[in-house]
Amino acid sequence: MIEVDNIHKSFGDNHVLKGISTTFEKGKTNLVIGQSGSGKTVFLKCLLGLFEPDEGNICYNGQVYSELSIKEKRNLRQEMGMVFQGSALFDSMTVEGNVMFPLDMFTKQSQSEKQDRVDFVLKRVNLVDAHKRFPAEISGGMQKRVAIARAIVMNPKYLFCDEPNSGLDPKTAILIDNLIHEITQEYDITTIINTHDMNSVMEIGEKIIFLKNGLKEWEGTNKEIFKTDNQAVTDFVYSSELFKKVRQMYIEERN
Amino acid sequence: MKYLEAIGKYFIMVWEVFKKPTKWRIMKTLILKEVDELVFGAMGIIIFISFFIGGVVTIQTALNLTNPLLPKSLIGFAARQSVILEFAPTFTSIIMAGKVGSYITSSIGTMRVTEQIDALEVMGINSLNYLVFPKIVAIMLYPFAVAISMFVGILGGWVAAVFGGFAPSGDFIQGLQMDFNSYHVTYALIKSVVFAFVIATVPSFHGYYMRGGALEVGKASTTSFVWTSVVIIIVNYILTQLLLG
């Protein structure tokens, strides 16, 4: 579980996060949504420990990040997995090398143990025949799967995803969403996803936080987002004609 | 003010490079890979340039020694001094700043743009140590490249002198041996170690702290070449004053 308590973050005069408090529960897929510039990425980077908040605390299973020693922070980082927007796979390594990298760096496992683990996670993300290929030789969807495999290879307690389905076709995007959701439940991970994708919101948003101008404007579930009267949320979520119609149908059905 | 800030940031980066080392088993592989990329990969161009620079220095010296009272051995002497003191360590380093420096900036810059550096940081890895330290260690073999450059440069001078008809082989070799001071070679190798450090770290700095996209990677490579060359020239002046002055 991650508890966020009133975090603020500024860059010079630009006050990006203006006091966000929330809780992300274990075994749930938590989504952070909001317009570009609303502070989603800064918020995620604060959660990852890449940015230190100017004010406020972040607790990981009761451990306050700012009170941890350097070694404890390093150990905590090894419990985190991250799927970057552009996958961020190492170009010079094969798919197998990318997934094995965290094991090489942080474990004392034998080569065969590492190989077994890599084979297992690649199979889990439905990639069985790409071990020896380089990131440039595989599709965007496959790269995302490799990034997910790399993120979960160390059995993380926390999984962070920055727009995991951006640049993917709708079918592959849904597959990636479902994969993250399944992994979250299967391994009982605290997953936090930054997204713009409304399909993700509707499909896997067990908890949704809507950020606006560096503040938490709304929070709820994918069921509650249909019912909300918050104008900022409805303007954002139902900005497309399709979603407006879906909402209208839902309201008519409810009445 | 901007430059002072950048200089401070550079020294902080250098300090960070030596903190929290990566596992030796991994580091060893990275160092060997960088030796191949940065040193062996550059040997071809170093040998090519050194040979012709040695030849050109010899021809120019010969063409300027028009007084018949001056012995032909002076051509060999001048070629040796020029190549050992300046051309092999400094000129080669400028070439390396272009070849190796641009490679370092663009490879690290691309990793920055594509969030690969963030990925390392998220895993709890000291990305500066992982990326820059192997380059610094690998390029410490650069003095060997400079020593080869000295040899090839003088060989180029001998070929130009003998086959160009500027000096007989015996006179040229006599000039090479005239008043030889081994400290000059030591001085050149000390310089090359310092230049090697500059060639590894200044381009890394430009790559690591770059912002933007693919276009900025190109710009950072150019800027890194300019600044690496400037730093080499300034350091060359200071070291010459300190070691020979």
TrEMBL record, chain A:
Keyword Ribosomal protein in the entry? The reply is: no
GO molecular function ontology, one term from the record: ATP binding
> What superkingdom does the record give?
Bacteria
Which key words are in the record? ATP-binding, Nucleotide-binding, Transport
Q: In this protein, which residues make up the domain named ABC transporter? A: 2-238
Would you tell me the protein name for this molecule? ATP-binding cassette domain-containing protein
TrEMBL record, chain B:
**Could you tell me the superkingdom of the organism this chain comes from?**
Bacteria
Please provide the record's keywords in A-Z order: Membrane, Transmembrane, Transmembrane helix
> Which molecular function GO terms apply here?
phospholipid transporter activity
Q: Which cellular component appears as one GO term in the record? A: ATP-binding cassette (ABC) transporter complex
Transmembrane helix: present as a keyword of the record? yes
InterPro entries the record matches:
Permease_MalE (IPR030802)
Q: Where are the transmembrane segments?
A: 38-63, 136-164, 185-205, 225-244
Could you list the residue ranges forming a coiled coil in this record?
none
> What protein name applies here?
ABC transporter permease
Q: Which organism is it from?
A: Flagellimonas chongwuensis
